Amino acid sequence: MRERGVLKVAIIGCGKIADSHALQIQRIKDCEIVGACDREPLMAQQLSQRFPVKKCFSNVERLLEEARPDVVHITTPPLSHFDIAKLCLEHGCHVYVEKPFTLYEEDARRLIALAEEKNLKITAGHDDQFTHAARRMRALVQSGYLGDRIVHMESYYCYEMGRSGYAGAILGDKGHWVRRLPGGLLQNVISHGIARLAEFLSSASPKVIAHGFISPTLKSMGENEIIDELRVIISEEDRTTAYFTFSSQMRPSLHQFRIYGSKNSLVLDHDQETLIKLRGARFTSYAEKFLPPVVDATQYLGNLLTNMKSFLGRDFHMKSGMKYLIESFYLSVVADSPVPIPYREILLTARIMDAIFVQLEKQQREARARGQMRPHPHVALAE
Asked: What percent of the chain has pLDDT over 90?
């Protein structure tokens, strides 16, 4: 067990997501941000002006040697995650890596192996799994509410593409770092939705069938590289199946998870922060026509009251899941207890994403051979 005291934390990468990390770290007792690092010094300085950061750096090794943090948050673009995380582990730091954890499963495996070798902790930024509603869902699943097995799951993760904001920057810049990811836009955003499935899959290597395409809307805007529609079927032999849907066109834009058991089912809505129980047994006769709406209305009211209670208790905010994950990770460091996200889930998420992008790259090559797509100017996955 680590000696108790103030936990020294550093942030590497001072873009927009770093603000969320710094804000949540502020909310956690017995920790301090001893350093912020960005290769552009002004980025680190602007973070330190808005949050209590002791010192700024533009070089990662200098940060590690001078600030000597216990934990490092890596909030850089994904292309650099592996190299920076490896360096931090080699310097004896525990590491929180923003999603996606790494570009490839093999890199994820190497980082986890290095952390275990050095008796350090590492985790991925899958904070959507730790919102209030997600934690209530997990407790119900663990209590046996679904029955003796999980039959099927559906994960929806939508992303609205427009001319403004982050999406607009990607569409308007052909050299944007997102375009250089092996999986493009998808690789930067779908891990939240895939991680939800990985938590409840039992197989180490489920079968993955993926189909992706560029929506007519993006094509009409002159976009011919970014895949913004993805449909995935995941199956474990003679056991659980799952669907994953990513879309920039579906309305309403969903962030939803459905899990169906042999007895009952659950629906988690991340946007509305609601958890709805789906009763497996039917009511008799005409009661089935009248009672379910009453039951559902009662549940939505219950979710409202629960959320209001959390809000009044100042524990209901947009990144409450991130705060819970960070705090749980810090506790695992201090108490030398299990990490909040099992390494099995991190690796399975990476493996499923690898399988998706290999198939999409193959589909793109076939489309180019038919003259339907321009060659992608950046990284391609090897088969």
From this structure: 85
Q: Which of 191, 140, 223, 228 is nearest to 352 (CA)?
A: 191
User: HEC states along the chain?
Assistant: CCCCCCEEEEEECCCHHHHHHHHHHHCCCCEEEEEEECCCHHHHHHHHHHCCECCEECCHHHHHHHCCCCEEEECCCHHHHHHHHHHHHHCCCEEEECCCCCCCHHHHHHHHHHHHHCCCCEEECCHHHHCHHHHHHHHHHHCCCCCCCEEEEEEEEECCCCCCHHHHHHHHCCCCHHHHCCCHHHHHHCHHHHHHHHHHCCCCCCEEEEEEECCHHHHHCCCCCCCCEEEEEEECCCCCEEEEEEECCCCCCCEEEEEEECCCEEEEECCCCEEEEECCCCCCCCHHHHHHHHHHHHHHHHHHHHHHHHHHCCCCCCCHHHHHHHHHHHHHHHHCCCCCCCHHHHHHHHHHHHHHHHHHHHHHHHHHHCCCCCCCCCCCCCC
Rounded Cα distance between 33 and 36, Å, is 8
Residues 6+ apart with CB under 8 A from 91: 64, 65
Q: How far apart are CA 132 and CA 311, in angstroms?
A: 11
N- to C-terminal Cα separation, the chain: 44
Q: Tell me which of 131-135, 317-321, 340-344, 374-378 is least confident.
A: 374-378
In DSSP terms, which residues pair with 187 in a beta bridge?
none
Residue 327 reports pLDDT greater than 60: yes
Residues 98, 125: contact at Cβ < 8 Å?
yes
Q: How far is CA 153 from CA 163, 206, 259, 310, in A?
A: 33, 14, 4, 28
Report the predicted TM-score, pTM, of the whole model to 2 decimal places.
Answer: 0.92
